[in-house]
Amino acid sequence: MYLGKVVGTLVATHKEPSLDGLKFLVLKQLDAEGEETGAYRVAADAVGAGLGEVVLYATGSAARQTVLTHERPCDGVVMAIVDQVEINGELTYNKAEVG
Length: 99
Description:
The chain is built from no helices and seven strands. 0% of the residues lie in helices and 47% in strands. It has one domain: CATH 2.40.50.220.
């Protein structure tokens, strides 16, 4: 699982029919301290995440383990909206304190 920040959406009018109904988000990968790594990822949204939110996402076969993505050709899924991140007793991210 990885941390990411929602930076956009992706719209595809022509796609594999089993992907119909999925919302796709563009994520910028974050490191443990919440800093952007420069890597981007497209992921199906299973939780209703919005622009600017920090999310937890999975890739590979784990991305097909949610109810929304089960048996769909999906290689990335947002499965949680992050409220807080604490590392070694230090709060590195708190959604309540953002913007």
